[in-house]
Design a protein that fits this description.
By secondary structure, this protein is mainly alpha-helical. It has five helices and no strands. It has one domain. Helix 1 crosses helix 3 and helix 2 runs antiparallel to helix 3.
Amino acid sequence: MPLLASLRTWARRIKRDAVTLWFASRHPAMPWLPKIVGIVAVAYALSPIDLIPDFIPILGYLDDVILLPAMIWLAVRLAPVDVIAASRIEADRWMTEQGRKPRSQVGAVVIVALWLVTAWLAWQGWASR
């Protein structure tokens, strides 16, 4: 399999697993630890705003290539197999019917809040000189 095809398959799987975790986090049989990891991963994955903006050379894509897949992998590994299986079926159905991933306004708000807190802390550090 050529490299480009492998990367596309991997990206589709990551996208599907993010949607899977979106459904799994609402499943009543999901334990609290994978639920928290999954909610954080899903909020970040579905947020229209990145923690590290993509226009920053190299660093802008590192979160998409390393951080997000690692969080998704951890949440999927911690979750019960039957919850993930049922959630994957729902995710596949969603992706087929909607043709897109859902959006997380909560994730966008969290990312914006993190940027605002960082800017405020930087301002406080600069102003206290």
